[in-house]
Here is the input.
Amino acid sequence: KNQVEQSPQSLIILEGKNCTLQCNYTVSPFSNLRWYKQDTGRGPVSLTIMTFSENTKSNGRYTATLDADTKQSSLHITASQLSDSASYICVVSRGSRRSGGGADGLTFGKGTHLIIQP
Amino acid sequence: DAGVIQSPRHEVTEMGQEVTLRCKPISGHDYLFWYRQTMMRGLELLIYFNNNVPIDDSGMPEDRFSAKMPNASFSTLKIQPSEPRDSAVYFCASSLPAGGSNEQFFGPGTRLTVL
Here is the structure.
């Protein structure tokens, strides 16, 4: 069964500290993995996408890693800011002959709720 | 571009009433998705359209839910009759068929409360 498990469910850290969020998946065959950030009261916004051949990708203070062998991804946030308080959702796409933006092969994690305290 | 537009942003209704949620996708996007989000279950895909045609509605919980896309710039999600367990945030998203990268652009959501 295709599943995406995220941990921890919630996390509270002090402003300025670093943190790492985890995403484990059993989706097969793998196509790509995307991290979304969802601010309170808003829709998710894509932070980064990881394909099979990519191990690390950075977007400012956010760095995503992917280990396709162990089927694990992490999202590392450096020098956290109050604006990083949000839910972070991991979405894994299953490889398919069907091209395009269809959602047949998307599996969503339940997210990690991150709170940055001043 | 204004992004994906949803209305209303908040809806409070009584059990048994009909609820209609509306969505305007980003111009030029030919995929449109409806999601429901709750604390317990996270984001759940309800239905999605490609070029105004429903492709997969297997996520629609039951016959009380229906969705239409009469043209490329408008879609509705209807619940009739509504029940308290339908209370959730409903998101609409759109995307391009970008070779499988699947980035979806989400609207701000409609928070539905059924009393």
